Amino acid sequence: MTKNVSDEQAFWFSTEEGSAGFVAHDTLELRDAFRKVPMKSIKFHLREDKNDFEAWLRNVMEDHAVADSVVKIKEDFSKGSLKGVALRKTLVKTLKK
Question: What does pTM read for this prediction?
Fold first, then answer.
């Protein structure tokens, strides 16, 4: 069973312009949001020295195994070897484990 958190601890998807209109209170909602959220929001949360997904999974959801998997996804994304639909599918697949 997945941990469910309050709005204050939820993951709020954003872009450079502000809210992307998606929120996740647990890992199932995060997985579902990965299927629908604009790609620019996913990229925003993986920008430069950020990995907001890994931080939320590790620190709020306390799911270190999935957080470690997201670190690898971020590395592949940063190298340019994972992008677009493949990035989205990989994030979804990681949360199905």
Answer: 0.93
